[in-house]
Amino acid sequence: MASYYKFAERQADSFVNWAEIGKGITDMIQTEVAIRDQKKAAIDQATRDNLKKIAEAPVGSHEGLNTWTLNYADSAREAILLQDRLLKQGILKLKDYTVMRQNLNDGTDELFGVIKNFQNTYKEKADRLISTDPKNRSQQLEMDLMAYTEQFADFSKSMAIIDPRNFSVNIGIMEPDPNNQGVMKVGKTIATASFLKKIQNTKVNYFDSNGAADAVSKSFGGFTESTIQELNRLQGKVVTIEDVRKRPGYEDALESEINSLFSNPFNITSILTNDLVKDKANKPYVSSISGKEGNVIDLQFDPKTNFYVPNFTDEQIQSARAEMRRKIEQRLDIKLKEDPFNKPQPNVGRREDEQTSSGGNYAESVNQFKTKLKQVKPKRDNYIFTGTGDVTVENIQNLLSSDPALIGKFKVSSADDVVTVTDNDDVLIGSYDLSKTKAENKGTDFFKQRERYLDDLINRVTNYSISKDPTIIGVSLMTGQQTGGASRFNP
What's the pLDDT score for residue 325? Predict the structure, then answer.
């Protein structure tokens, strides 16, 4: 009896509820099966949707296009069914299956989009090319790109293909198979549907070089230079030329403007193909995409932007810059004005060759006036132009207030190392780049530059004053002598 009791006790201690465990396992298996059924149902539904979309491939009245599209639809249908079969057989992982199916779906959408929009896009681009509105006009490169895509839309010479490695959709150009006479095969010219779609939608705008030249030319201020010419013993004339090209710093400013315009390289392609059209050898400027012969603009594909980048030759860049310069400079007005005047004459009773009260004939009086101005000492430093803006401004103001003929007629200002002298109506008399007069600028003859600037300033203010009143110099000199004593003209 005792032995049986202990056996029963051990059996009670080691009892396992297999019914509860079995229920848990059953529930787990059923849940897993349910999840698998849900995934399988989702995959099957996605396959049905994809096949339906393929069956609704766009067709129209173009028989060649219809055949081309339906051939692709058959290939896409087979690809979809192959993906499903490989997945169900366990050969294809779900992750890989998902990526491949997405590639096929996206490629199909893009391909059908390209087919639907090609004709409308082509008409739009053709209209843009011949538009007379610069804002809505394209440059030749845009049509070259469209022509590049057009070969893929030649449905007798192209084929839509599916890459079996990742199921992306491409379009290839057919060419004769050298090993099988009369048979066509896909050649090396292949493009993805996404690339063709990008090209189709890309706009390469025309660069309105004339409008840009107008804006640049208007940004330059005037620059006036006057000279005195003697006609005879009794008469002379002041010749005033307004030419901004003689303004100090003009070349640097013009180059900077052109650099800014050409920061967009497609502005250069527009200048070459739309404005110049041909080079000096009479070769047309053409893009490498066009396949035409001529002065070829090399366009290199950039995988980062999925687009092309121009790679210009030195000749192409220089030709574009020269054309832009020509357009700007032909808009810069060069104005010539001549003001005749009668020279101050000697007192009544004196011979014409006697000295006047101003010390000689008119030309000599003008030279004497300029010489006296040059002898005016600067208030600060040893030179009128010191290379420091505020000092130079003060020195010039001192110079221009040293004679009654000049007092109150000019304004002086400085900004960014440039000193500007204008009249009271803000008409530019002269501007001077002080960076060229600084001693620390190695390689610059700054002492001579200071002297050149001073001579130029004196000539300009003198000639400008004479152009306003030809008698003013004689009056000024006479004033200097009549006062007597230690005047600045009679020390």
Answer: 93
